[in-house]
Design brief:
InterPro entries: QSregVF_b. This protein has 120 residues and is an all-alpha fold. It contains five helices and no strands. It has one domain. It is globular, with a radius of gyration of 15 Å.
């Protein structure tokens, strides 16, 4: 069971349809934002969360971090296919490639091996 799902069953639909609110991938489904951008954003998260009046606001940065973490968890565990059917009709993203070839975990990988391969 996904924590919080029993309290808010529409949370997965909102996650699947969440869009990037700013930046290079503004308007894209978060599902379609490339891993490289997610990692870049995560590296800059502490400064974004502490800046006053920045773009995004600290609240937006926190929201986006939670959304990216949830989507990454689905992708890492091979469950992205559960979110794709929840994308509302006509809402497909099309400019981002998602995860690059070879960066998705294989059955023989553990999480550490997969993460280290990203940085090679």
């Amino acid at each position: 069971m996904i924590p919080g799902l029993e309290v808010d069953p529409d949370s997965l639909v909102r996650l699947a349809n969440a869009r990037m609110p700013f930046g290079r991938y503004q308007g894209e489904l978060l599902l379609d934002v490339p891993l490289e951008y997610v990692l870049w954003f995560a590296n800059r998260l502490p400064e974004r969360m502490s800046s006053e009046g920045g773009d995004p606001s600290p609240g937006t940065a926190r929201w986006l971090a939670v959304q990216f973490a949830a989507i990454h968890s689905f992708r890492f565990n091979g469950l992205e296919g559960l979110l794709r059917p929840l994308v509302e009709e006509g809402q497909e993203g099309d400019s981002a490639e998602g995860y690059p070839e070879g960066s998705f975990p294989g059955e023989e990988d553990d999480e550490i091996d997969w993460i280290m391969r990203i940085f090679e």
